[in-house]
Amino acid sequence: MKKHNVKSLADLRAAGVSIAWLTCYEYSFATALDATSLDMILVGDSGGMVALGHPDTVPVTMDEMIHLASAVRRGAPNKFIVGDMPKGSYEASDYDAITNAMRFIKESGCDAVKLEGASVMAHRVKAIVDSGIPVIGHIGLTPQSSSSFGGYRVVGRDSGELDLLTLAIRELEIAGAFAILLEATPPQAAKVLSDNAKSIIFGIGAGKFTHGQLLILHDLVGLYPSFRPKFAKCYIPEILSTFSSNLGNKEDLISFGRTTRQDGIHEITRLAVEAYVSEVKTKTFPSENYTYKD
Ligand code: KIV
Asked: Is 73 inside a domain boundary?
């Protein structure tokens, strides 16, 4: 599969093809993702929780993100990779924002960066875009500043919050963001926002009407033990029978594992990711069970 760029992703949106996006934080999982038809990867600061064991994303440093993103790039040379700007790496000044976004591009080989917020942060987005780096905005529930907004909760249920999200999308689009991630937004609100947007609107916990979906890899494979939000579907149960029946056809499991590596977690991950991509493309994910109420 040919590696995407900003234009080919916009072409998918224009053609009504839903875009499948998934997080990843290390090399071997990245090689499994590279072997699928997934459109793009986010090296999220959620890695601070699921890969580094912090209780939330706040402590993650820029150096840690560069380390994780570089490993993902080595494992997934054919994927469009987005580096997630961690808390403290962009808020203070345009200089910080450009310098740290540039590190993702030069040191880790990322294709774009994502950052949380609008308003003043839209200035940071503009500064990064003006330096030649594609940017994805992130609004709705923004984990880095969730304590200022009443913790982890659905955002956009009342008309005041919907107006603020509409304004945020406008600001980010004027600043030059080519895409915006809506997190934890009710499905009908996300539909109105997506229908009216010029950019690509991705959703995580935002229903099925956005132009693309994002999931956390560790939720998709059921690896993070602490917490699984309502929208996070684990695809392992439904692909395990395919995995075992593929194994059953093989006479020599040892050489099967040694020559093609299809006997374990790598192959299970690949099958689970393909199942996710297929449901995103057919717009069957997220079903009602994985969607917040309006
Ligand atoms: O870091 C991340 O994975 C994210 C998602 C939670 C949206 O930003």
From this structure: yes
In a domain, 1, yes or no: no
Question: Is residue 38 a part of any domain in this protein?
Answer: yes
CATH number at residue 46: 3.20.20.60
Pocket test residue of 58, 81, 85, 214 for ligand 1, highest count of atoms within 8 A of CB: 214
Which residues have CB under 8 Å from 124's CB, separation 6+? 90, 91, 94, 97, 115
Which one of the listed residues 64, 171, 183, 279 is annotated catalytic? 183
Q: How many domains does the chain have?
A: 1
pLDDT, tens digit (0-9, with 9 covering 90-100), for 179-202:
999 999 999 999 999 999 999 999
Structure tokens that stand for 102 in this block:
């540039």
Burial class (CB within 10 angstroms; exposed 0-12, middle 13-18, buried 19+) of 249: exposed
Query: Per-residue pLDDT tens for 13-59?
Result: 999 999 999 999 999 999 999 999 999 999 999 999 999 999 999 99
Q: Locate tokens 């203070």: which residue?
A: 92
User: Is 183 among the catalytic positions?
Assistant: yes
Q: ∠268-271-276 over CA atoms, to 5°?
A: 125
Neighbouring C-alpha atoms within 13 Å toward the C-beta of 58: 6
Confidence of residue 260 (pLDDT cuts 50, 70, 90): confident
Q: Residue 83 domain-assigned? A: yes
111 lines ligand 1 (CB under 6 A): no
Residue nearest to atom 4 of ligand 1 (CA): 44
The boundaries of the domain holding residue 109 are 6-290
